[in-house]
Amino acid sequence: MHTVVTGLGLILLALAIPGLIELSLLTLFSLWRSRATGLSAATAKAVTVVIPAHNEEANLAPTLTSALASLAEARAATGLPHRIVVIADNCNDATASIARAHGVDVLERHDTSARGKGYALNFAFTALADDASAGFVVIDADTRVPSDFISQASAAFGSGMDCFQASYRVLNADDSVRTKWMQLALTGFNHLRLIARERLGFSVGILGNGFGLSKAALERVPYTASSVVEDLEYHLRLVQAGLRVRHLAGAEVRAEMPVQADAAGTQRARWEGGRFQMIRQHSLSLALAVLRGRLRLLEPLLELLLLPLAYQLMLFLLLALWPWPPTQVVGLAGLAMIALHVLSAARQSEVPGIFGVLLQLPLYVFWKLARLGGILRLSGDKDAAWERTRRLAEDAPNTRHDFDMSIVIVSFNTKHLLDECLVSVEHNRGDLRLQVIVVDNASRDGSADFLAENHPGVELIRSSVNLGFGPANNVGFAQARGKYTVLLNTDAFLDDGVLARSWQLMEADAGIGLLGALLIGRDGVRQPSARMFPSLLNDFLTLSGLAWRYPQSRFFGRFDRTWADPQDAADVDWVPGAFSVIRSDLLQRLQGFDTRFFLYYEEVDLCRRIQASGARIRYEPALRVVHIGGESSKSIKRLSLSSSGNQLTLWRMRAGLMYYRKHHGWIGAWLIRQMESRWHQLRALKPGQDPARQEESQVVCTLMQQAWQETDAGRSSPPQPW
Known about the structure:
Elements: H1 2-28, E1 47-53, H2 60-78, E2 83-89, H3 95-101, E3 105-109, H4 117-127, E4 135-138, E5 143-144, H5 149-158, E6 163-170, H6 177-200, E7 211-214, H7 215-220, H8 230-240, E8 246-255, H9 261-291, H10 298-305, H11 309-321, H12 325-348, H13 354-359, H14 361-369, H15 372-378, E9 403-411, H16 415-427, E10 434-441, H17 447-454, E11 459-463, H18 469-479, E12 482-489, E13 492-494, H19 498-508, E14 512-520, H20 536-544, H21 546-549, E15 570-572, E16 579-583, H22 584-589, H23 602-612, E17 616-627, H24 629-632, H25 636-640, H26 643-684, H27 691-710
Parallel strand pairs: 1-2, 1-4, 2-3, 6-8, 9-10, 9-12, 10-11, 14-17
Antiparallel strand pairs: 4-7, 5-8, 6-7, 12-16, 13-17, 14-16, 15-17
């Protein structure tokens, strides 16, 4: 028994001692505050700030405001052509448009086969290899920098630094106890440890945010890191190439951390799962290099083997309790060093109520340990797909309303309709404070220029690509500052008094989340204005024609509510997106449309999420809107036999599969695919069937198979076709 205890104790010591050595060095040499380097602006060099962004429309604007202020100061101080470049990587939202609206350069990358921040950065560094800068500084899309940040980076390159890292801390530490824990943790990991390594002459590491690389460094070590923790992966390659990352003392970046437990857990799991992956992949090669005499790689090896403190704490605690004196000594020493490290971080963390935060640290440890299983699973995942983290700003309602209503209109080659639509809005203004936003979705008919010339009071947002209906509306939603947001199509024209009446209805009933209107064609014919959610039954009744054969039946006419009196107001499942009024705080909380729906089903999905939030969808026939879309729409037969029709039909199928997969699971998506395909197969076999209808059925079956494959059975949105 004693032999077993000793043997296991030796294994535990082997696991713990590298971490104890590294933690002791970093803690003891970080007990004093770092001093500024005092770099001279006289030797400054041009800097390109690179901001990698994946679907960051909700967070990018404040980051750019901060960076542009720093850019202006640096240009004034140095006279050099510093610049900011945003890398919109595999984005299907308004990231690129928002960046261009701020006057910065934009590079767009679309490659779903190579997804991840590392790929985006390598793309940027390669594309910008010939610009006038000496090097690149990378900040994340949710980051704030001080006004002298770019000036300091410029001076660092001028002083001969090839690689450097600023301190990296939390922007929103006051938001919750969880963000306070993160501030405490990052003060230790991203600040104090950098100070210690710099004093010891070690490479301080790359933290993924606030780091700089000269062009010379990138030529020597290209940024071909593709893991989830591409920053750690690249740093290991740098040190093996003999390069040292310096600490840019006195400079820091601050980024927003998630408040929600699930978002924070996912973020930490990805970070730490990636770290364990690096341990598995690189620790042996580093150890062999040290044994061959490359002693400068010993510290990177020890740093790699130093576990996150929650896990290191449990290891030291196990050693302290192990019934063998050598393990107990090491365990107690490790616990003491962790305590000293945490207290040192607490002293410099700037966290309000730090004493209370320290008392709650056991909860943080348990929270981390509960996620160890998921972290270990992720450590074996080689997929570096870029998953953005939800932030507080995306869930917190906007309580500031500069306008009564914000009218958001998406335009795509609708120059001939825009003027009439906007005139109808203007006739509805009355005493309302209106904000009118038009998002031009890469029109090719001169719509944007026409709008800028003839309607200067409209806020025009130009997108360089067709974002799709839902994502383009999200761009407008992000700029909306009204208490209520009005979604309006360019082919929809408001009767007099619609906006005033909408305002009154929303003010009178706080339970209404979204308000719809009675849609009428130019010919006076009522269009479907209130509907039930799609379901297998509803889709079957529509597909089979039974809904049109028995429109007055509550059962057969259920989808379009053709049985109901159109003059009766009612709570319904969803209303078409031609016109709707939405509470802006609710819209912000739900993050607008799901950007996976490029076209079709986006309003159905939004209404479903509104109902899930506890709010109601209200149909109000007193609100009359003329909508010409219904009159000009084509039959399925005519659409499916033209190239443009095929595309639209394909996108309808793609969106339908994604909707069913999202709300009814894989089986729902599979069943709707089978139902539509089999129906058309049977129709094609009908004796005496018209050849054109047979061809139509064959086209539909082919398109459905294509949609199933391209969406991965309704799992994801395929590349945009426009």
